Amino acid sequence: MGQVMAALRAVTVYYRSMLMMVAAGGHHEFDALRVICNAPRVDFWSKYERKQESIMTEDEVSRLFAATYLHSIGLMFKLWSEPHYRADNLQTDLINNLQNIAIPGTGIPVSLLCSHLRILQAYLLLVHPLVVAISALFISKSTEHGKNRSVIDIFADELIAPGHWFALWRMNSVLVAAHHHNSRPAVKEQYKYENKWDFLDLMLRKRSSSSWSELKATPVIEDIRELVCKHKNIEGGMGIHIFKNALHGGDWILQKRLYNDAELQRVLPSDAPLSTYRVITMLDPTAETFEDRHIAMTTVFRAGRSGKDTDHSSVLMPVDGDTLMPGKMFRNWYQVGFAGKPVLSSAGITDHPDTGFKLAGVRLASASSATSMCIEAHRRMMPNVPAIGWDVAMADGEGAVLLEANLSCNLFGGVYDKSKYVRIMDTFFANNCKAHPLSTKRAEAKEDSTSESDDYSSTAGLTTQS
Questions:
Q1: What is the pLDDT of residue 435?
Q2: For 261, 323, 409, 445, which has the most beta carbons within 10 A of its beta carbon?
Q3: In whole angstroms, what is the distance from residue 415 CA to residue 296 CA?
Q4: pTM for this model (two decimals)
Q5: Is a pLDDT exceeding 50 seen at residue 453?
Q6: CA nearest to 277, candidates 302, 305, 244
Q7: 52-69, pLDDT tens digit by residue?
Q8: How far apart are CA 14 and CA 279, in angstroms?
Q9: Phi and psi at residue 316, in whole multiples of 5°?
Q10: Residue from 295, 86, 279 nearest 173 by CA
């Protein structure tokens, strides 16, 4: 009976929240969701002059996570037609980036749900609880996913506080979209560095600065204006491709191919692609000082598959300190098309599927240096952006190099501190997705930033947002 009541409470929370947010078009108060979810309130910590951070219980963390998760859905309604940092609006960005993501087991691309706001809202109100109920049945039959929970408990968790990668991706992407929308122009300027060329251009301009010496991007070919590539057998001019270098006004970034260094290559197939660390860093708006404000939320090693060109096909191995933990593969989310696809992801992977090499338990000394580099990159390149997913390679002959930054990022199945994560999300949401003022100590931190003045306290750096 207790489990049934818990499920009924979850359904009640879900529909009270959804109906309120749909009716308000996303212009609801976050505090109202706190009340519905019975989530802990502001007095757990001071968002401006924190004296001592209170420790939340596991149940309080779950209820606060539910409030932030549901609020992020409401923010989608609010931002639906608003300008987005990389698209005309949020709807367009969702359609562009969800075409290859399917509702697991159905083959239906999630982008179809974004074709109209009313379609998405109708799905959330009429269909999604049924989808969650069916997935709960599958999860309960899996030892790795079910974790000895009943079907009813799984349903309640997945309905209002799901922890899978897609839910976290959507929360993070909505957070950065809302933060960009509510920020000053000088802060919005930092978002351009998700663009691969703007990212590399900044790194090239800063490479002579001693204070940026810890950061290194993938090398680019600078002295060639245009590159001609010819197929060795195709005739009639059809096998010729000309690429103009972005450094000389073109659209193409020309680079030599990089290969894994010896430490990484020893755990990978001989023909594996460049296999990177994905490091997720976040801006902690509750931090007392600038030095504590940028943190690593999680690090994942992407162990590339045999014969693939990139590590988009890989086993995602969470990194705990410098040790690889059992990994995951999310192929069930990337099965667009005919039905009959797997409903659940592959979890608990200990060995590389192509070689049988035991990955879990392996220590990678480069993991900690990759994480440290990303924290420093966040601090210098985009200090105001709430969350960034960095791709870092350990390349033979080059060492640690940054490939790119992804601002709409997920946690890639990594290990993370849920209490800290939800506290950061809650603080942003409670402050209209703006970072609140730091203590007066922030004025003491003056270092390089991406602004012309190279001063973090400048309008382009880390300052109180208006």
A1: 60
A2: 409
A3: 11
A4: 0.89
A5: no
A6: 302
A7: 556 889 999 999 999 999
A8: 32
A9: -90, 110
A10: 86
Among 38, 35, 37, smallest CA distance to 14 is for: 37
Q: Alpha carbon of 103 to those of 15, 93, 110, 123, 201: distances in Å?
A: 21, 18, 6, 12, 38
* E strands, 331-407, in order: 346-349, 387-395, 399-406
Mean of pLDDT values over 320-346: 88
Mean pLDDT score across all residues of the chain: 89
Q: Is the pLDDT of residue 50 over 60?
A: no
Among candidates 377, 407, 404, which has minimal Cα distance to 393?
Answer: 404
Q: What is the pLDDT of residue 466?
A: 30
Pairwise CA distance, residues 403 & 149, whole Å: 40
Dihedral pair phi/psi, residue 313, rounded to 5°: -105, 105
Q: Which of 75-79, 196-200, 332-336, 376-380 shows the lowest mean pLDDT across its residues? A: 332-336
Structure tokens at 195: 């663009």
Q: What is the DSSP letter of 126?
A: I
Of 278, 281, 359, whose CA–CA distance to 323 is shortest?
359
Q: With b meaning 16 or more CB within 10 Å and e meaning fewer, what string describes 323-347?
A: ebbbbbbbebbebbeeeebebbbbe
Backbone angles phi, psi at 405, to 5 degrees: -125, 135
Distance CA 43, CA 57 (A): 15
DSSP string, 166-233: HHHHHHHHHHHHHHHHHS-HHHHGGGGGGSHHHHHHHHHHHTT-GGGTT--BPP---S-SEEEEE-SS
| Strand (E) or helix (H) holding 134 | helix 128-140
Q: Is 107 left (phi over 0), alpha (psi -120 to 50) or beta?
A: left
Q: Fill in the amino acid letter for 154.
A: I
Q: Give the DSSP letter of residue 411.
A: -
Q: Name 389's bridge partners.
A: 280, 406
Interatomic CA distance for residues 109 and 315, integer angstroms: 23
**Residues near 443 by beta carbon (within 8 Å), at least 6 away in sequence:** 457
- Confirm if 24 and 16 have CB atoms less than 8 A apart: no
Structure tokens given for 24: 């308000």
Mean pLDDT confidence for 457-466:
30
Residues in a beta bridge with 299: 279
Provide the residue type at 283 as one letter.
L
Q: What letter would DSSP give residue 53?
A: P
- Secondary structure of residue 316 in the 3-state scheme: strand
Angle at 19 between CA 135 and CA 160, to 5 degrees: 35
